[in-house]
Each structure stands twice: as C-alpha cells, then as structure tokens.
C-alpha cells in the first residue's frame, strides 16, 4: 500500500486514503475537517467504484462532483 500511495503522490495527489480509512467515519470526518479547514469537499475521485465510492459520496458538499477513474475492473457506483 505504501508503494501505491507514493506513486499516486508522484502523480500529484496531495491526499491519499485507504478504503479502511474512508469507512472509519470518525477518523475520516476529522481528517476532512483538518485538511479542508472546515470547507466543503467539492471534488472526489475514485478508481474502483462500488461501496467505497458510495461511502465517499457521504462526505461531499453541496453541488460537488464525484468522478470515477477507470483504473480497475468495472464495478457499479452503487
């Protein structure tokens, strides 16, 4: 996992989280407040789909965008 996170950061990602971190609502809510300064999340990108993407959508602000990048096998968004 560390190698993947490093590779994503080399491509320009500033923040990278695992699906376990995303599923931990207490951790992730606090983390979002920390990195956003309390502002709403306006864009989220996901390369897998399925339940993690649904979990991710919970954290988006009003009028935000959720993008799926086709990096792996096809999986529905919900």
Q: Which short descriptors sum up this protein?
A:
single chain; 78 residues; alpha+beta; two-stranded parallel sheet; globular
Explain how this protein is built.
This protein is of the alpha+beta class. Helices cover 42% and strands 19% of the residues. The longest helix has 12 residues. The model has no long low-confidence stretch (mean pLDDT 85).
Put the structure in a nutshell:
The chain has 4 helices and 2 strands. By secondary structure, the protein is an alpha+beta fold. The chain has a two-stranded parallel sheet.
Task: Outline the fold blueprint.
Elements: H1 2-10, H2 19-23, H3 25-36, E1 41-46, H4 51-57, E2 60-68
Parallel strand pairs: 1-2
Major β-sheet strand ordering: 1-2
Fraction in helix: 40-55%
Order of helices and strands: HHHEHE
Mean pLDDT: 85
Number of strands: 2
Please work out how many helical segments DSSP would assign: 4
Largest sheet: 2 strands, parallel
Overall 3D geometry? globular
Beginning-to-end CA distance, first to last residue: 25 Å
Report low-confidence residues grouped into runs of 5 or more: none
Beta-strand fraction estimate: 15-25%
Structural class: alpha+beta
- What is the radius of gyration? 12 Å
